Amino acid sequence: MKAMVHQRYGSLDELALGEIQKPVPGDHEVLVRVQAAGLHIGDCFGVRGAPFAMRLVSGVLKPKRGIPGFDLAGTVEAVGARVTRFKRGDEVFGAHHGTCVEYVTAAEDKLALKPTSFSFIEAASLPTSALAALHAVRDVGKVQPGQRVLINAASGGVGSFAVQIAKAFGAEVTGVCSSKNKELLLSIGADHVIDYTKEDFTSSAKRYDVILDNLENHSLSDCRRALTPTGMLILNSGTGAQGVKMLLRLIRPLVVTAFVPQRLRRYLSVPNQDDLVVLMRFAEEGKIRPVIDATYPLGETPAALKYIEAGHARGKVVVTL
Questions:
Q1: Does an H or E element contain 222, and which?
Q2: Does the pLDDT value for residue 245 go beyond 70?
Q3: What backbone phi and psi angles, to 5 degrees, belong to 40?
Q4: Residue whose C-alpha is closest to residue 126's, from 237, 267, 234, 282
């Protein structure tokens, strides 16, 4: 079967279309014929092997799998002996390592039925980014109706979902983006939009109960100034700082939060079936709709990753098979 593979870390051009063996599902696994694979900045990190912390998962010296992609949508081809939730022919979406490939064997508990109103491309955009948004808004921020929520980098993959999910929880949502994306944010439910090329949200007189910062392009002190006295700052940067800078970025908020009434949080979003079902229901109820910036065929995966790495993607980029 066809797959995008890389044998070593380095340039995104290390990726090449190759042939690998079709997998066989284990007892608790599902064999999925992949129709679409969602991509995000973590896939760029995985191919480059940087920041180095990525290698603790992907392989220290060389890639263990060597196939990009964490998100998928497709059709169940076969199921393991102990699989109870799915059957051949089901349309599913979910999370798995190495989804830029024709077939994957994914754990049963990392999949859910695809929203019937979504295409495979739309469903493949959900798992990593929409789950990260859900976990930030619901679990970390504990957003309540009427709260003021600001999303920095609101037109990106996580940000565009966070705007919609925060609205679903009844918040008054402000999105930060460039002027070209203002209408996009308003169309997906943002109550207010700040054009960062004209205004710095940290210098405004307005205060927010929750800030989800997907960019981390302001200092902690500046972001705290934009919070209410007991507000929460949720940090979710995908910029890939390395070495001492990355260590300081990770640790500093944990130290500062011990001495101030405001809460500064980092978090880890782990895919699970229950929350994939939440996303499926949100989709069916019309509460979330992915913003798809671009699609690329499997053979053009390197170009898709370069586009994401350039930092100007609106919403999601998806590889189609």
A1: helix 220-225
A2: no
A3: -155, 180
A4: 282
